[in-house]
Amino acid sequence: MNRQEIDKLVKQMNVDTATGEVNPRIQQVVVRLLGDLFQAIEDLDLSSTEVWKGLEYFADAGKANELGLLAAGLGLEHYLDLRADEADAKAGITGGTPRTIEGPLYVAGAPESVGFARMDDGSESDHVDTLFIEGKVTDTDGNIIPNAKVEVWHANSLGNYSFFDKSQSDFNLRRTILSDENGQYVAQTTMPVGYGCPPEGTTQFVLNLLGRHGNRPSHVHYFVSAPGYRKLTTQFNIEGDKYLWDDFAFATRDGLVATAVDVADEAEIARRGVDKAFKHITFNVELVKDKTAAPTSEVDRRRASA
Ligand code: MBD
Ligand code: FE
Predict the structure, then answer these.
(1) How does it assemble (predicted)?
(2) What value does the mean pLDDT of the chain take?
């Protein structure tokens, strides 16, 4: 069939058959995606077996709760970032810390504190480097933003995230820190290790068929929000990781590479109240002022909460 015949058929089956109230947006999307799917079946001469295997794949990925991981791994989530950047540019919104993907592992409801949070539960302290992360939240003119909500989450030394990894304590390595009166936030935590897709999982299954790995560099996620500013979803990825520019989820971006500096100075160690040398990362965040004409910076997606 050619596209005209396909579109006619799709319309006959899914538009002309309507007898109840139609959601025009959903109708538009369904008609377009079905037409594109039928066209792909035509162009690639997909067999019935191939089509059913595809549907079964999505059923399995959904059952394994890996569709968010798949969206990251196939670059769909990064593509949405590039689209959001384009939309912002078109609306005259520039500057500020770059956005990058949220990923599938956020959990709402983390403990909140002002200025400082210890993020780790201490269970890895004896064999993992301590990491201090600190930075200032400002607007794009450098004016400090006190009381900004800085939500931070990252993996443990095995690349695993609490909640999804039930061996970790509740909200381990997840905190909400409100910037203090100087716009400052400080997190004491442990060095994260890059995530790898479950080797037997549905996402790695398709990555294998594409000859791709499923690894991310070591990184720390952020949501930063404050009244009157656009919500920022971002992360820093840590210099020196072999996957820094070979991230299976394409999240590393210029401006989002952080350097973990070794600190061994005894006075600094004492000042921080720790008992060994540590690593230090500075990650300042610049928020962009909200405008009524701006595209939304909020993404509504299903998120875990505990
Ligand atoms: C992660 O930690 C992550 O950030 C993404 C995007 C995908 C899988 C695991
Ligand atoms: Fe992550």
Answers:
(1) Homodimer.
(2) 98
293 pLDDT above the threshold of 90: no
Residue whose CB lies within 8 A of the most ligand 1 atoms, among 106, 152, 216, for a mutation test: 216
Per DSSP, the chain holds a count of helices (H) and strands (E) of: 7, 14
pTM exceeding the 0.90 threshold for the entire prediction: yes
Going by C-alpha positions, the residue among 133, 99, 84 that lies closest to residue 287 is 99
- Nearest alpha carbon, ligand 1 atom 9: 195
Coil/strand/helix, residue 42: helix
Share of the chain above pLDDT 70, in %: 100
Mean pLDDT, range 217-240, rounded to an integer = 98
φ, ψ of residue 13 in degrees (nearest 5): -85, -30
Q: Tens digit of pLDDT for each residue in 31-56?
A: 999 999 999 999 999 999 999 999 99
Structural domains in the chain plus CATH codes: 3-46 (no CATH), 71-305 (2.60.130.10)
Alpha-carbon distance values, 11 to 14, 34, 149 (Å): 5, 10, 47
Residue 155 CB-half CA count within 13 A: 22
Q: Give yes or no for residue 195 CB within 6 A of ligand 1.
A: yes
